[in-house]
Design a protein that fits this description.
Strand content: 5-15%
CATH architecture of the domain at 97-270: 2-Layer Sandwich
Largest sheet: 8 strands, parallel
Number of strands: 26
Mean pLDDT: 96
Number of helices: 34
CATH topology of the domain at 97-270: Maltooligosyl trehalose synthase, domain 2
CATH superfamily of the domain at 97-270: Maltooligosyl trehalose synthase, domain 2
Oligomer: single chain
Strand order of the largest sheet: 16-15-14-5-2-1-18-17
Helix content: 40-55%
Amino acid sequence: MIATYRLQLTPDFGFDAVEALVPYFTRLGVSHLYLSPITEARAGSLHGYDVIDHNAIRADFGGREAFDRLRATAHRAGLQLILDFVPNHAGVGPNNAYWQDVLAYGPHSPYAAFFDIDWNPLKPELQGKILLPFLGRPYGEALDDGEIALAYEDGRFYAAYFENRFALAPATYARILEEALPHFERTDAYFDLNDLHRAYASLAPDEYDKAETLRTRLRALADRLDLAPILAAFSGPALHALLERQFWRLSYWKTAGYEINYRRFFDINELVALRMEDPQVFWESHRLLGELLAQEGVAGVRIDHIDGLFDPHGYLERLRELGADHIWVEKILAHGETLPEAWPVEGTTGYEFLNDVMGVLLWADGLHDLHRSYRRFVPQARSYEREVYRSKMLVMETKLSSELFRLAYELDRISEADYHTRDFTLEALREALAEIVAAFGRYRTYLPHDPEEAREVILQAVYRALQRNPAVEPTAFHFVGRVILGEVHPDLQPLQQAWTGRFQQYTAPVAAKGVEDTAFYRYLPLAALNEVGGEPDEPVRSRHAFHARARFRAHRYPRNLLATATHDHKRGEDTRMRLVALAEVPDLWQQTVQALDTIAADYRSEGAPSASDIYLFYQILAALWEDSDPSTLPDRLWAYLQKASRESKQQTSWLNPDDAYETALKTFVRGVTTDERTPHALRDLADELAQLGFANSISQLVLKLTTPGVPDLYQGTELLDLSLVDPDNRRPVDYARRQALLDELAPLLEAPQIPTLRSMMHARDPRFKGYVLARLLRLRGDHADFFEHAGYRDLSLEGPGQAHWIAFARETHDQALLVVVSRHPKHRRNRPVPELPMPDTLADYTWTEVLSGVHIPPTYQLTLSSLPLPWMVLFGR
């Protein structure tokens, strides 16, 4: 593999559009097109993760025919496809046939086992029902105002709520037809209608086949009747009485966190979890994927949210049986965590590399100054550890409370089954469980697999939870830990194993919503560090640690993806590198904050915005100021700050938006961004960040394209990527501009000219990044086997400035790659350039410096100052 190129497909950028770009991707030098989900999704979906049919290709992308054309064209051009598959969940709604069937037949539906539904929840009123929290206001208000109405379509009656449809139980159709009988008493349809009414009146809820036969009769009869007056007759109390007889209960969306009884993707009500541990569910939902994987040009699959599955190991084994030769998993690894060894995968999608490369390029000494500035500006700021704890607890108390209570209730049943533990109260167990989940140091464990590693993680979580609660009786905490680990009476093990599986499915969404989507928007000394999989309190990676991770990849996961930008990133790869540069200029940053704050005084209102939101805004404003379109920047910044503030859940939130606060925030962001004094206040810092960020970005790019693993390029990042979190990072890409740039660079890529390269080597020239990318992709393409199999070793530099450089070698028996990149560009200025002692095994190699084209004869000592660029990629034989 040379490199992957991630594409976000949309109805406006479907298979035909990608097919037209195949010549460009081929010339760029990638080997694989890595597509966002292609299966049928909810209407108008812009991301594709709300799948409604795993066995159909999206019609608004062009359907199966257009996909096959793309696959064939790409294959002829030497490109292969990687498919993004979503096994954990599905999108609910009127077009999900399986979901509507479950709404109609409840637990009697043949598809009831597909969805992770608790048909026996704690609330008695929900026994045998699904809570449907899709109303925009309380149920009674929506019903009284006529927002909920009865509807008919294609042989089925529904409750309609705006664009939503909720299928009614066929056994309740008799009540509707009873209402219809007097209206059609004098028509030739009366006797057929009466017969159908009697048939439905005698229908039992579990008579699925009979109900489907009656549906055919109803469809034929309805074509002869005007049902509108009948449907309109059901409103208010009459409609309520009908809805009470369904296998579901409509509710206000805010009730979901406390009463929902189906597992979701995180806290998104529209995404219902699938029971992929059931072999029937797996094989039924993977029919299309198995067919596609068998075709030429489809290389493998990326599995979304592997941590949501009950049994990830079993799932991956089945996926191999299906024919998936190459599997990548979207897995967020904690620092120091590795994938379970038994997983049959190529590796992860590369979030950990993003944080490793950022950490090794970061100027650690400047972080202390940034923390001091942050504390001065946001004096009420808490430690990161405390913020994570509070954020996780908040999520469990609000968004994911129902799941916690279910776990606690089942845990109480386990405790009641043993007279040694029956005295634990439900509330004590719930509190202990929440504290342990909040103390978890990673997304999840994978019991019964990797029991020793899981034991260490779980006992550490119990220990940390007890440390945080020294006055609490510890026995309940220890009991929870023992149950997770399976230390129960053998008779209880089936119950315990099912419970532990659900517990492991719970810790991941708590981590995602509590850390990435809450704490990351609260703890803000340096926003760059708050990235997916990052640890803002321990962000620095020593060169030793960076090299160790690279060696591990070379040995164990040579095809692990290396990402620096994704559809889920918090900030684009070049935005992040500009922010990283703040650590090198803390004094200038502090001066700029003071200057901006003087301007900002004109746009503040009483208590708004918060100091935390303002501090984040200043960082993003400084990073984006240079090279962003001024006509769109205010809108982009406002959209970003609105989302950031809601995610932080301090002044406003998605659950309870504060209109007054958000209005004040909008006025503030737009006012400061467009104030005539702002350019002067930002001038020095923005220019410095652009230049330092440029140097950081090229170092990041060189490391990404030369260290062990497969570079993953996110769409459009061939040029400067100053994007923010979604939806900002999913804007349409100007491929015409990128193709023109590649055309312009073609002569230089064939024959590098040092004066031209030096003239391009600054932040405002988009060509240099594109040149480095394309040139190194050609190197990888010319030596693909080398890059997959070469080893890795770090190299030592000599001289007083050596701390500002990173060096390593990769070798096979007759070829070698030697890479030296600079870091800390501000502190490297005017420092002596170190020398590189050539390893004895490489001293007789003849080298070509790939970026500049310079040839270097065999040598025992390489003088870096003699090379034309501050990034050196030598390929030798």
